[in-house]
Structures are given as C-alpha cells and as structure tokens.
Write a structure and sequence with these properties.
5 strands; globular; Arc Repressor Mutant, subunit A; Beta-Lactamase; 2 domains; alpha+beta; single chain
C-alpha cells in the first residue's frame, strides 16, 4: 500500500546519516507531494514554545515560533510565510489548537479571511494538516492541493497523522531537531524566496504592464510547464535581467 511505502521513505529521510534538519524536512515534504494521491505540495514544520522574554522580539503564531520547515514548492513556502506573519491559516491553527485541520476549499472558508487571497494565488485550495508532539516541540505535517475537494478527509486525515508520527519519531531518534530547536525562530528561507520572487514580479510588471497578481501567475505557469519551483524561475529571470541590463562595456 502507498501509505506504508511513503511512511518508510519519510522515516528514512529523517534518519539519513549526514542529513541536516533542513534537508530532512525538505525531502519529507517532497516525498509527501509525490506520494500522497491528489497532493500537489506538502509542508512539514517544527515549532517550539515561546520562551520568557521572547514575546516582543519573535514573530509569534499563538504561543509557538518556527524552528525550521520544509516546503516541497516555493509557492507553498510563500503561503506559509503569510500564515505565520498574519497568524491565520490551517497550519497555524493546527499547531495552536493541537488538532487536525482540514480544508475542503479555502474559498468556502471564513476562518482565515486574510489568508484566502494568498492561498488562491499560491495554489492552496484544499489541505489536511496534522500536529504531532516532539520532545519540547511540535511537528505539523500538511498535504495541500491546487484544486478544491482534492482529498477524502475521512480517509486521508488518519493517514496524514501516521505520516506525521513517522516523521516526528525519525527526527527525534536521529536528534535532527535538537540543535535548531535552541535557535531563535526564523523564516530565512521563505523570506529569501519571497525577495527574489518580488524582484521577478517587478520585472514582469514593468515589461508587460500587468499587476502583481498577474505577474505571479505568469511565474507559476512557467514553473509548472518546466517542473520547477517558482523561486527557481524567479531567480533565473532576475539573473537574466541583471545580465542584460548591466553596465555597458566601453
């Protein structure tokens, strides 16, 4: 059965010798995106509680801050960044309430009004997210789809719970999260991806006279045709633009 194979693969990524927490989480999310029927992207996040004195300096989702995360696609990373900074969305709710959160269609949701537009832009129409406790931390495991009602929630929710448990056990036994759990929360990878995507959107908007949403959609279309992440397409465009507009040689 696919769930057994996928659970073993996710566990292996968590325990692979020499693998960093960042790489393990990325590989887990990509394995889920490939292996879960109907899934087009996946997100695995490690959270920890806010410590005293950190409330004013950390970006906080409820009482938890992000330790590290893996997103199979950069547009889902952007959507997660938006959830984290606005404190709205299925992943934030899953860790805050410590319960499974299912979304049939984000356009039918009224729980997270500030998340709807970003979710649609990033292709996050339906999802199932499950939280699982780690020692001193929490792992959330989410599968997402670009179309509405992509999942049978009654069937998939316990399977996502199983994947989350395998991921948490593997990371715990390998000690993958312990070092980064001591660090301050960060959104470095998402912020870096967001910066280059914003640059690329600006280039497209200037060249084609479109708005930001249309520019982002053009990036997404190119990424889908070429089976690339949006950030990779954006980076190529920014580098090409810089090469073509650099100082003229004398």
């Amino acid at each position: 059965m696919w769930i057994e194979r996928l659970a073993r693969e996710i566990g292996a990524h968590g325990q692979a010798e020499g693998s960093t927490p960042e790489r393990a989480l990325d590989q887990m999310s990509m394995a889920a995106a490939r292996g879960v029927p109907g899934c087009s992207a996946a997100l695995v996040v490690i959270w920890r509680d806010v410590v005293p004195g950190e409330e004013r300096t950390a970006e906080v989702a409820g009482r938890q801050v992000v330790v590290d995360y893996g997103a199979s696609h950069s547009d889902l990373a952007m959507a997660f960044e938006h959830q984290y900074t606005t404190d709205e969305g299925p992943t934030v709710e899953a860790v805050r309430e410590m319960t499974a959160v299912t979304v049939g269609d984000v356009l039918r949701e009224d729980r997270w009004p500030r998340y709807t537009s970003m979710a649609v832009q990033c292709g996050d129409r339906s999802s199932v997210t499950f939280p699982c406790e780690l020692e001193g931390a929490v792992l959330t495991f989410g599968v997402h789809a670009g179309r509405a009602d992509a999942f049978d929630e009654t069937v998939l929710t316990p399977l996502v719970a199983l994947l989350a448990e395998h991921a948490a056990m593997a990371l715990h036994s390998a000690g993958r999260y312990t070092d980064v759990a001591r660090e301050a929360a960060h959104m470095r990878r998402a912020m870096n991806a967001r910066a280059v995507i914003d640059q690329a959107k600006g280039i497209i908007m200037h060249a084609r006279g479109c708005d930001a949403a249309q520019a982002f959609e053009q990036l997404r279309e190119v990424a889908q045709r070429n089976r690339m992440r949006v950030a990779e397409v954006a980076r190529s465009l920014v580098e090409e633009h810089a090469a073509n507009t650099g100082p003229a040689k004398r």
